[in-house]
């Protein structure tokens, strides 16, 4: 007979931000992650990390914004992995383009609850068709490896269209298709 699994994922991100110039913001972020995974039959696993990031955001113009962050995270085993993130957003009138690279740790929900160190590229383009309707195309690619290495290693990608409809100022409904 099959059994259910239980996953608990807790994350804390906290830290100060400073507006160092009219166009530049500096941030320090402490990150704590605790994940547990259990399955019927007694199988259980989990991980815990503590780390930090130093971030910078620059507004180049009303249409162009970029940010970057660098840091590291330490596993309970003592292993340390570096983390990084970079993104850029450009907009003009009703059209926007977003590109991002990230190296981060997240839990694996397949096979076992081990941490995955993922390098991911993401890109999207969106266009506001009317005041209420936005159409987007998106794509991403990721290469993920378990920590410690050797348990899980895979590459993944997805892409597709998305249609957002603003029902009210605070409520939006979306229709998306993703190809994996």
SSE arrangement:
Blueprint: E1 5-14, E2 17-19, E3 24-39, E4 43-61, E5 64-75, E6 80-92, E7 95-107, E8 115-128, E9 133-146, E10 153-166, E11 172-176
Antiparallel strand pairs: 1-3, 2-3, 3-4, 4-5, 5-6, 6-7, 7-8, 8-9, 9-10, 10-11
Which terms would index this structure?
180 residues, mainly beta, 11-stranded antiparallel beta sheet
Note down, in words, how this protein is organized:
With 180 residues, the protein is an all-beta fold. It has no helices and 11 strands. It has strands at 5-14, 17-19, 24-39, 43-61, 64-75, 80-92, 95-107, 115-128, 133-146, 153-166, 172-176. Strands 1, 2, 3, 4, 5, 6, 7, 8, 9, 10 and 11 form an 11-stranded antiparallel β-sheet that branches. The two termini are 30 Å apart.
Low-confidence stretches: none
Largest sheet: 11 strands, antiparallel
Specify the oligomeric state: single chain
- Strand percent estimate: over 45%
Helix content: under 10%
Rg calculated over all Cα atoms:
19 Å
Beta-strand segment tally: 11
Structural class: mainly beta
Count of helical segments? 0
- Could you give the order of the helices and strands? EEEEEEEEEEE
What is the 3D shape?
globular
Q: Mean pLDDT, nearest integer?
A: 91
Q: Give the termini separation.
A: 30 Å
């Amino acid at each position: 007979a099959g059994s259910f699994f239980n996953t608990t994922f807790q994350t804390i991100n906290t830290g100060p931000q400073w507006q160092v110039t009219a166009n530049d913001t500096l941030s320090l972020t402490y990150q704590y992650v605790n994940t547990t995974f259990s399955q019927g039959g007694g199988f259980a696993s989990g991980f815990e990390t503590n780390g930090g990031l130093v971030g910078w955001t620059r507004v180049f113009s009303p249409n162009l914004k970029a940010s970057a962050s660098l840091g590291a995270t330490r596993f309970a085993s003592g292993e340390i992995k570096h983390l990084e993130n970079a993104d850029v957003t450009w907009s003009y009138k009703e059209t926007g383009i977003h590109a991002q690279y990230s190296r981060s740790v997240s839990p694996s929900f397949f096979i076992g609850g081990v941490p995955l160190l993922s390098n991911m590229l993401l890109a999207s383009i969106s266009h506001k068709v009317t005041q209420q309707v936005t159409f987007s195309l998106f794509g991403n690619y990721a290469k993920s490896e378990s920590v410690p290495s050797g348990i899980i290693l895979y590459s993944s990608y997805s892409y597709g269209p998305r249609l957002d409809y603003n029902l009210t100022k605070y409520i939006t409904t979306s229709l998306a298709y993703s190809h994996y």
